[in-house]
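User: Some background: our group keeps a shared notebook of sequences we're curious about, and every so often someone picks one and asks for a predicted structure to add to the entry. Today it's my turn. The entry only has the sequence so far, pasted here. Could you supply the structure so I can complete it?
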Amino acid sequence: MAEPFVVFVTAGSAEEAERIARALVEDKLAACVNLLAPIQSIYRWEGKVEQSEEVLLVVKTTSEAFEKLRARVIELHGYECPEVVGWSIQRGHGRYLRWIDESVRPTE
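Assistant: Of course. Here's the predicted structure to add to the notebook entry:
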């Protein structure tokens, strides 16, 4: 079984988040994507502290699919420097983790 992985991506609008989420699932780069909105983000960008409303995508995938997923997000995203950060899932419900593994099949 591939290593289960969770990835956070932020998007500037619900439409962009839905477009990215759908593409990741359709491309079999993700088993599931949850969209959490609205979130308030406070961050430093180009030397200034900024604040904006965003949508957080919580992507369930595998570590093996991460690089292709990252590249696809960058391709689809409107931000100059999109957030794409991932972590290994250390523990979880075995059946759910197997479902992630079976659902994620990135093409060559």
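Suggested note for the entry: Residues 34 and 58 are 5 Å apart (CA to CA). The chain has one domain: 4-103.
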